[in-house]
Amino acid sequence: MIDCHTHSLFSHDGRADPRAQERRAASLGLTYFAHTEHFDPDYAFGGLERFSRPLNLERYARFIKTGRENAPGNGGFIAYGLEIGYHPETAEDARCAADRLDLDVIVSSVHTLQGREAYIGTMFRGKTVPQVVDEYLNALIESVRIPYCDVVGHLGYVTRYIPVFTREKQFRLWQPTRRDRIDALLSEIIRLDRTLEINTHGGSGQDDFLPEFGILRRYRELGGDNITFSSDAHTVRDIGKGYQAARAAALRLGFTHWTVYKRRVPVRIQII
């Protein structure tokens, strides 16, 4: 069992002591557990800083150093990483900041478009849902091409909030009219050897994760082979949440290994 994407009190929305999360991971028998704290330079646009607390990079660096020096000997690997919010004007600065840390993995995510956030609903103001989705897919393709990207974070993020902030009762990203755009995105992920996460944050049932099962299936059909599991936990109790559903989906589609990262180098772990 693994978990490649989590948040602690280092992140603006995290609610857990990071060492308590590690103890929880050990109690569950995780062989790989990653801290991936929010680093959101994209929030500098649109006045979004007021909704978040910037990551203290120096403090996080000290935490990483201490963790490396006192690594547990129980067979589980603790990884240290970032989840970087993508914006084209901050990508180079984000890379430089990440290079100052001793990282294992970087999750690249698109949370904002032109300074508007899906989580707080501003992304949908004055725009139709198709407009938002098209812009989101374009930004995702750009973000995948950024050199620091190891893992593509929660593909389909905007769909979590469409029913909340619009009149759409249910929305699926995987639709015939959007297939060419999604194929282009998935093909770029494969070409650049990025890893696609199965993200179960916010899910409550079978196949209730991101990306949608149809997109995950299409990724496999196009030859995609690098996947990982991410609970995207923000609390202690949510470490590993949804793993069995993600595992079942992965095996159902013929995936045999999870891809994780150690010092930014991909490592494959058999799904058992």
Can you walk me through this structure?
The protein has 272 residues and is of the alpha/beta class. It is built from 8 helices and 11 strands. The chain has helices at residues 18-27, 57-69, 91-99, 129-144, 162-165, 179-191, 213-221, 243-252; strands at 2-3, 32-39, 77-85, 105-109, 112-113, 116-117, 151-152, 195-199, 227-230, 257-262, 265-270. The protein has a 7-stranded parallel β-sheet with strand order 1-2-3-4-7-8-9. Strand 10 (257-262) and strand 11 form a beta hairpin. Helix 4 packs parallel to helix 6 (179-191). The longest helix is centred in the middle third of the chain and has 16 residues, at 129-144. The chain starts with a strand and ends with a strand. The mean pLDDT is 93.
List the SSEs and their pairings:
Elements: E1 2-3, H1 18-27, E2 32-39, H2 57-69, E3 77-85, H3 91-99, E4 105-109, E5 112-113, E6 116-117, H4 129-144, E7 151-152, H5 162-165, H6 179-191, E8 195-199, H7 213-221, E9 227-230, H8 243-252, E10 257-262, E11 265-270
Parallel strand pairs: 1-2, 2-3, 3-4, 4-7, 7-8, 8-9
Antiparallel strand pairs: 5-6, 10-11
